[in-house]
Amino acid sequence: MDDPGGDKPHITPPKTWTTGVPAVAHAMEYSLEQTSPRRTALTLLNINQTEGFDCPGCAWPDPAPGHRKRNEYCENGAKHINDEATSRRITPTFFEQYSISELAGKSDQWLNQQGRLTEPMVKHVGSDHYEPVTWNEALGLLAEELRRLDSPDEAIFYTSGRASNEAAFVLQLFARAFGTNNLPDCSNMCHESSGAALKETLGVGKGDVSLRDIHHSDLVFLVGQNPGSNHPRMLTALEQTKRNGGRIVAVNPLPEAGLIRFKYPQKARGLIGRGTRIADQFLHIRVGGDLALFQALNLLLLEAEDARPGTVLDHEFIENQTSGFTEFAAHIRQLSWKDVHTATGLTRAEIEKLRDVVLGSERIIVCWAMGLTQHKHAVPTIREIVNFLLLRGNIGTPRAGACPVRGHSNVQGDRTMGIWEKMPREFMDALGREFSFTPPAEHGWDTVDSIRAMLDGRAKIFLGLAGNFVRATPDSRITESAMRRCRLTAHISTKLNRSHTVCGEIALILPTLGRSEKDRQAGGEQFVTVEDSMSQVHASHGRLEPASRMLLSEVAILSQLARHTLGDKVDVPWDGFETDYHLIRQRIARVVPGFENFNERVVRPGGFGLPNPVNEGVFPTPSGKALFTTNEFQMPQVPDGHLLLQTMRSHDQWNTIPYTLDDRYRGIHGSRRIVLVNPADIRALGLTDGAQVDLIGVWHDGVERRADGFRLVSYPTARGCAAAYYPETNVLVPLDSVAEISNTPTSKGVVIRLEPSPLQAAAPRASA
Ligand SMILES: Nc1nc2c(c(=O)[nH]1)N[C@H]1C(S)=C(S)[C@@H](COP(=O)(O)OP(=O)(O)OC[C@H]3O[C@@H](n4cnc5c(=O)[nH]c(N)nc54)[C@H](O)[C@@H]3O)O[C@H]1N2
Ligand SMILES: Nc1nc2c(c(=O)[nH]1)N[C@H]1C(S)=C(S)[C@@H](COP(=O)(O)OP(=O)(O)OC[C@H]3O[C@@H](n4cnc5c(=O)[nH]c(N)nc54)[C@H](O)[C@@H]3O)O[C@H]1N2
Ligand code: SF4
Ligand SMILES: [Mo]
């Protein structure tokens, strides 16, 4: 793939602080490159305002209505919104000019930079070009192919977390009325491990912490998370925590800028001076060492209790509200400090210091993201964090709890709406009752299983609601060949991406409105709803003129597709849904618990919070108690001469889409084919800083996985570890390397070796 300008990286020392004036300037620069000053101003004035649209960036919550600022967004939110609001357009002439094979040779960045998709397009069997098609023809064709399948289970309906609640509800209803639970989503690659661990131990697969809890907590852990780039406004909340006297501990193999110091751009204090120091303690852990760390911490707490009985553990809570403590404690007491040191790279003294911080804190919150969820032992790691929180009664009480920080702005809402290949029985029964049909009983395929099914011909049609499936998924080459084996691939998208260029025999581009745009239907202007990382549900009103008059909303596309495919086979008012989204919300209110009087409550400024029984001290587990679990000690196994690679985001990208080739806070400029390695490891491997290397994935299936032409950058990452950007390195993540239980690809635990690159700098890249 072309890598524009990727050959001349410029490396500067990593930053030790985030945000402030440069961040605002960078946001404006990118926005003005994409669109006019007027449109930029309009988008920025409407982000995260009660009458405006929800930021399409991450799922970090907004402050309560009376507490919002005029500019309630971060640098990256501004970039994400203006990437959507761009004035650039892709018209049918573009697809005449470029064949699909040519487009498949372009970089992710180039494809995104071409602008908004404006008209439905089709690629017919045998053709290498997309050509214009009417909506009726496009949806008619897709419906006909769906009806021709031998079984509804030969179809896959993927969702990425930007889709609204309304679109998600309609999609899952359509898929189930059609007859399948094949509803994989980006969550399968994201927080699936969090959901699995929390559901098992606490009975609810979501976090139990509010913004207010964060502000007033005594101690907040940030584990496996880079908030300075990926949840920037979280730093504002953490600054508040610190002002209220709380402390912060960061656990990360990289000393990320946002974990160290933060300058707030909208206050004088952020513009001058040194800003707020964020982390009081930074634990420079090895990749994959977090299970060992929390087991060690739990052991130290048990020993502190032995030394001063009755002063450390919350016995009343453990006795009345939990089960499994005795087995857990017996197991933890066998922990070996040698193993802990090998797994974490931390000294006992560092962990003892952490214990002292914990002992000095009454109420504790643990926040985490992809650094924990994308490991083979992700679920046990998060279960061990739950053990840690339970020991001192830090669950189900204010200012404390578990906080999986979600990625996509509505990824949590999509799940609540039923986007899941294995929704629980109660949901399926309620759905069936409401619409008088019997939803399929068998679980569907998640993302990894969907790829396997496409590979061996069990799946024939792929429809994506948002997202970029072939770049988000592991083992890029294998996944692309899986997609190419399909009879039909179709994508409901705002922007062009690589998934549109990796086609089945027939392919469709179904262009749609973005969240920033006015959504006019026969029943008047519509709004949609979303749920943030802290279970707050609120409305999002588009404010811009649509990018093209030919665009349909996601709800309209899905409702029309359902009508084309199912006719009146099920008792669903698809037309009504398209005309007036209140009618969808009425049905959601009757199917999904917590959404009673949805239409009335969601129009209140700021919306409403979904109830979480854990906050009432109720644990809907089979035993009615919170569960201590016994987790076998595990750590990644890395042979000598190899490194453990984590694949991560740069500051200037949105998931699979790089906006620029810079990663400012880490001091990387002008290239993404960079691998960060500790200087001692570079020496030990006999390599030199700045060398060109290939990354070779090592897995036991004998397939060679290679990402070539990377520049080696000496960087303060933990020993034995390496870091490089996703999606360029997805080619190295084996499809079969997945987390236990959650089946999440192990994107943060890839065993690699480095080889000096045979092709030196200048040659164009051939690999994905
Ligand atoms: N600007 C921007 N914002 C985003 C996104 C984006 O692409 N761009 N994506 C959104 C989405 S969908 C998501 S899920 C979130 C992701 O948000 P993050 O989870 O912050 O994203 P990653 O870049 O994957 O970063 C993982 C962090 O975990 C650390 N890490 C890696 N391995 C380990 C480990 O084994 N242990 C520990 N303790 N730390 C580890 C890395 O050094 C890095 O700091 O961000 C959301 N927000
Ligand atoms: N190696 C590795 N792989 C990973 C990860 C990792 O850390 N490392 N992270 C994983 C994670 S956490 C996630 S969440 C996934 C992300 O995977 P996805 O969610 O599938 O990918 P995105 O890059 O967010 O999708 C971008 C595309 O969404 C479309 N889009 C944007 N806005 C809208 C909209 O409003 N409506 C519609 N219909 N389309 C829209 C655009 O066409 C855009 O090109 O990737 C996963 N893959
Ligand atoms: S923190 Fe996330 S949701 Fe908030 S403005 Fe930034 S990108 Fe948007
Ligand atoms: Mo994500």
UniProtKB/TrEMBL annotation:
The lineage of its organism: Bacteria, Bacillati, Actinomycetota, Actinomycetes, Kitasatosporales. This is Molybdopterin oxidoreductase. The keyword Coiled coil does not apply. Belongs to the prokaryotic molybdopterin-containing oxidoreductase family. Residues 116-402 form the Molybdopterin oxidoreductase domain. InterPro entries: Asp_de-COase-like_dom_sf (IPR009010), MopB_CT_YdeP (IPR037951), MoPterin_dinucl-bd_dom (IPR006657), Mopterin_OxRdtase (IPR006656), Mopterin_OxRdtse_a_bac (IPR010046), Prok_molybdopt-oxidoreductase (IPR050123), YdeP_MopB (IPR041953). Residues 643-750 form the Molybdopterin dinucleotide-binding domain. It comes from Streptomyces scopuliridis RB72. Keywords: 4Fe-4S, Iron, Iron-sulfur, Metal-binding, Molybdenum, Oxidoreductase. GO terms for cellular component: membrane. The keyword Methyltransferase does not apply. It comes from the Bacteria. Transmembrane segments: none annotated. CDD domains: MopB_CT_ydeP, MopB_ydeP. One of its GO terms (molecular function) is molybdenum ion binding.
